[in-house]
C-alpha cells in the first residue's frame, strides 16, 4: 500500500502535503497533552509505532503474484486514540521511506493520509459504533481493522487511478501512474478484501489480549502504575517476538501492486492490456537512494539484515520519542 516515488504527480503530492500538515500539527498537539497528563504515554508511543512498523514487515502473498501487508493503525487507535495512531503511523512511514526506501519521499504525505489518518479514524469510528455501551469489543476490533484497511486501500487506488485522467502528455499518454481507476480499484480491492482478514484478526487478537490483561489486573491488588508497567512489559515481549519472526515476511515473493520499479512497471503493463511504455513523468522523476534499501544490510545474510533493520528501527523509535517529549515528561 506504500505509494512509491513518481507514481503520483508533484501536484498531487503537494495537495496531499497541504492536507496532512494541519493533521500532523493537531496530532502532535493532542499527544503533547496526553504526555503532560501521563508520562507513560512516551514508552507507549515507542511500542505502538514499533507494532505498526513490524507488522508491515510481514509481507503476505496476494492474488496476481503480488504481496501485501497489515498496518496496525486501527489497533493503535483502539489502544490509545486516533490522533496517537496518526502520529505513530506517520513516524513509522517516515522511517520506512527515508531509511529503508519503502514508499516515496514525495508521496509520504499521501501514504500518511491513507494509512495514518484515514485508516485509524475510519476503523476507530466503526469500533466505537459496534462497541456502543461496551459490548461486542472483539467484533468491533475485527471489523474496525478489516474495514479500516479496505478504506485506506480504496483511497490509494483512487489516488493512483486518477493520475492517467489528470496528467497526460500532448499525445494523451499518462505522465505518472499509467493504471486507470478500473485497474487500481479492482487490484487493490481484491487484495485487501483478503488481507483485511489478517488486519482484522491481528487487531482483534492484540486488543483482546490487552483488555483481558487489564481486567485481570483490575481485580488484583496492583497499583495503577504497576498495571501500566505490566502492560508495557507484555507488549515489549510481543515486539521482541515479532522482531525475531520478521524473516517470515521474506517468504512472500513479488512486489505489492503498483510498488514496482520503472522497469518492472513497464513489464507488467501488458498483464493489464496497457501499452508498454515508461510514462515520461516517471522516467524523469526524482529518485532517492535509501541507506538500507529493501531492509538489506550489505555483507550480511538477508535474514540477519532483516532482523537487524527491524531491531534498529524499534530502538530509534524509542529514542526519538524520548528526545521529543523529554521536556513534557519532566514538567
UniProtKB/TrEMBL annotation:
Presence of keyword Membrane: yes
Residue intervals of the PDGLE domain: 235-324
The keyword Transport is annotated on this UniProt entry: yes
NCBIfam families in alphabetical order: PRK07331.1, PRK11909.1
Transmembrane segments: 7-25, 41-58, 70-93, 105-127, 139-162, 182-211, 232-252, 303-325
Xref: Pfam families: CbiM, PDGLE
Record key words, sorted: Cell membrane, Membrane, Transmembrane, Transmembrane helix, Transport
PANTHER family in UniProt: METAL TRANSPORT PROTEIN HI_1621-RELATED
Chief place where the protein resides: membrane
Gene Ontology BP, a term: transition metal ion transport
Cellular component GO terms, alphabetical: plasma membrane
InterPro entries: CbiM/NikMN, PDGLE_dom
Cell compartments where the protein resides: Cell membrane
Membrane topology: Multi-pass membrane protein
Protein name (record): Nickel permease
Superkingdom assignment: Bacteria
Amino acid at each position: 500500500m506504500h505509494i512509491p516515488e513518481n507514481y503520483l504527480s508533484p501536484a498531487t503530492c503537494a495537495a496531499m502535503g497541504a492536507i496532512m500538515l494541519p493533521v500532523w500539527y493537531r496530532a502532535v498537539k493532542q499527544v503533547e497533552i496526553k504526555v503532560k497528563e501521563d508520562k507513560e504515554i512516551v514508552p507507549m508511543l515507542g511500542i505502538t509505532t514499533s507494532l505498526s512498523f513490524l507488522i508491515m514487515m510481514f509481507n503476505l502473498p496476494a492474488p496476481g503474484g503480488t504481496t501485501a501487508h497489515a498496518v496496525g493503525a486501527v489497533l493503535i487507535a483502539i489502544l490509545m486514540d486516533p490522533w496517537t495512531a496518526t502520529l505513530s503511523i506517520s513516524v513509522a512511514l517516515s522511517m520506512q521511506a527515508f531509511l529503508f526506501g519503502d514508499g516515496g519521499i514525495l508521496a509520504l504525505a499521501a501514504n500518511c493520509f491513507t494509512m495514518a489518518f484515514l485508516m485509524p479514524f475510519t476503523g476507530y469510528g466503526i469500533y466505537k459504533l459496534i462497541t456502543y455501551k461496551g459490548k461486542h469489543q472483539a467484533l468491533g476490533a475485527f471489523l474496525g481493522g478489516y474495514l479500516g484497511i479496505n478504506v485506506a486501500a480504496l483511497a490509494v487506488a483512487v489516488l493512483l487511478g486518477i493520475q492517467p485522467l489528470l496528467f497526460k502528455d500532448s499525445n494523451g499518454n499518462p505522465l505518472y501512474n499509467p493504471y486507470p481507476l478500473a485497474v487500481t480499484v479492482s487490484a487493490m480491492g481484491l487484495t485487501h478484501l483478503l488481507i483485511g482478514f489478517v488486519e482484522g484478526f491481528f487487531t482483534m487478537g492484540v486488543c483482546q489480549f490487552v483488555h483481558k490483561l487489564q481486567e485481570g489486573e483490575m481485580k488484583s491488588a496492583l497499583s495503577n502504575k504497576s498495571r501500566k508497567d505490566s502492560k508495557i512489559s507484555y507488549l515489549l515481549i510481543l515486539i521482541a517476538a515479532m522482531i525475531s519472526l520478521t524473516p517470515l515476511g521474506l517468504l512472500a515473493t513479488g512486489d505489492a501492486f503498483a510498488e514496482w520499479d520503472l522497469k518492472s512497471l513497464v513489464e507488467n503493463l501488458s498483464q493489464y492490456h496497457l501499452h508498454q511504455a515508461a510514462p515520461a513523468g516517471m522516467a524523469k522523476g526524482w529518485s532517492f537512494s535509501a541507506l538500507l534499501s529493501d531492509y538489506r544490510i550489505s555483507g550480511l545474510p538477508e535474514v540477519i539484515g532483516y532482523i537487524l533493520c527491524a531491531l534498529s528501527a524499534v530502538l530509534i523509535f524509542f529514542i526519538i520519542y524520548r528526545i521529543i517529549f523529554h521536556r513534557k515528561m519532566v514538567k
